[in-house]
């Protein structure tokens, strides 16, 4: 199957490099994405918003034959949800990696520190301890060296959804910094941040205990988890 891999903030297609071998070996065709404004540190990020990132992935789906699976890490999950809303008949499954579907009108994260038209990778102190599990000093250095500032509006623009057929698309959550059992508790309690997930008709879970960036901390295991998710 064609699998579009959507990175989270500050990352480009190369962030999936250690994850894709497992997909290749299972016979899938991975397509890691570099989103608009993430091409380089020097790229122009002026005016780039969340809809531009959704549009970019929609074009990739439309260029491929047959059903497509989407994998969205972190903020890339909102993009995957936007694409599933636009093209539900083309999406075989959405896999959220330490992420979940964002509801209509919500944004990814409007609390990140903005500098002009972009959000540079912040100091590590901005993140929760659970985010940084297994991300040792060497990995943090490698992450920071390759990080590209995120277009500011991608974090703060509301996601617009209008097609209820998106709820028919099967969903897998790969839970990393918190266990899937906690997501179940949130759903049972009717927490607002899982209200979109609550409407999905087909949801399953895989636990991969680590921090928020498993493509760095446990890439081989993440690859195997993706293969398992796509086989369901």
What does this structure look like?
Helix 2 (50-62) crosses helix 3. Helices cover 31% and strands 16% of the residues. The two termini are 13 Å apart. By secondary structure, the protein is of the alpha/beta class. The protein has eight helices and eight strands, in the order βαβαβαββαβαβαβαα. It has a single domain (2-231), classed as Alpha/Beta hydrolase fold, catalytic domain (Rossmann fold). Helix 3 links the parallel strand 3 (68-73) and strand 4. The mean pLDDT is 97. The strands form two sheets. The protein has a six-stranded parallel beta sheet, with helices on both faces. The chain has a two-stranded antiparallel ribbon with strand order 5-6. The longest helix is centred in the N-terminal third of the chain and has 13 residues, at 50-62. One of its GO terms (molecular function) is hydrolase activity. Residues 3-222 form the AB hydrolase-1 domain.
């Amino acid at each position: 199957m064609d699998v579009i891999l959507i990175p989270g903030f500050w990352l480009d297609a190369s962030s999936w490099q250690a994850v894709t071998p497992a997909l290749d070996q299972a016979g899938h065709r991975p397509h890691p994405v570099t989103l608009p404004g993430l091409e380089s540190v020097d790229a122009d990020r002026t005016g780039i918003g969340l809809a531009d990132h959704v549009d970019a992935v929609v074009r990739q789906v439309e260029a491929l034959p047959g059903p497509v699976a989407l994998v969205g890490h972190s903020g890339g999950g909102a993009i995957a949800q936007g694409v599933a809303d636009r093209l539900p008949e083309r999406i075989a499954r959405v896999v959220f990696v330490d992420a979940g579907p964002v509801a209509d009108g919500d944004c990814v994260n409007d609390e990140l520190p903005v500098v002009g038209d972009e959000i540079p990778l912040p100091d590590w102190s901005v993140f929760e301890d659970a985010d940084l599990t297994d991300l040792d000093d060497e990995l943090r250095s490698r992450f920071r060296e390759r990080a590209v500032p995120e277009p500011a509006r991608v974090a703060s623009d509301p996601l617009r959804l209008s097609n209820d057929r998106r709820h028919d698309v099967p969903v897998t959550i790969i839970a990393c910094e918190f266990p899937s059992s906690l997501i179940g508790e949130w759903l049972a309690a009717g927490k607002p941040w899982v209200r979109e997930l609550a409407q999905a008709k087909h949801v399953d879970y895989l636990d991969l205990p680590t921090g928020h960036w498993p493509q760095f901390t446990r890439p081989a295991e993440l690859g195997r988890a993706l293969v398992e998710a796509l086989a369901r």
